[in-house]
Design goal:
Radius of gyration: 17 Å
Largest sheet: none
Number of strands: 0
Structural class: mainly alpha
Number of helices: 8
Order of helices and strands: HHHHHHHH
Distance between the termini: 50 Å
Strand content: under 5%
């Protein structure tokens, strides 16, 4: 229903097609995780371009859809790094961990979406909230992968 509109918007808008996440997000996350500090600030900073759009705006929704794709690409990059440097057992564990971290986060987004439909019809604000939730879920999957992949090797 709204997805074809978003795909068209992403393709037609050069500002959104460019990366929306800040480039130093990985370093921010690694530093926060190492300091045992809440890394949510890194994700919020990474999403600052998307948060600049009004809630419920098509541009904001499209931005979060793009951010979700970028986080997914970063997960793929990290998994490729692990595949190049770690033994098979570690690669398998990392793949299982990230799979279930992503499923858990995205399932929570589905639940929030369905609950929002109990009291109102789908609208731009609901689409925005779902896109933001999914971008954050994939971001937190990436954060978990970074944290866990550095500590997967048994001592």
């Amino acid at each position: 229903m709204i997805r074809p509109i978003l795909i068209f918007f992403l393709a037609a808008s050069p500002g959104i097609a460019e990366p929306v996440l800040s480039q130093n997000t990985r370093e921010c996350i690694i530093n926060y995780v190492a300091a045992d500090s809440p890394y949510r600030a890194c994700v919020q900073r990474a999403h600052s371009n998307c948060l600049a759009w009004p809630i419920g705006s098509t541009a904001g929704t499209a931005c979060f859809v793009s951010a979700k794709a970028e986080w997914g690409a970063r997960i793929s990059e990290r998994m490729a790094e692990i595949a190049e440097t770690e033994p098979e057992e570690i690669r398998m564990i990392a793949g299982i961990e990230v799979k279930y971290d992503l499923q858990e986060g995205l399932l929570s987004c589905d639940r929030q979406y369905e609950l929002s439909l109990v009291t109102r019809d789908p609208d731009d604000e609901i689409a925005y909230a779902r896109a933001r939730c999914e971008a954050e879920a994939v971001a937190f999957g990436y954060v978990a992968l970074l944290g866990k992949s550095n500590a997967l090797r048994p001592e």
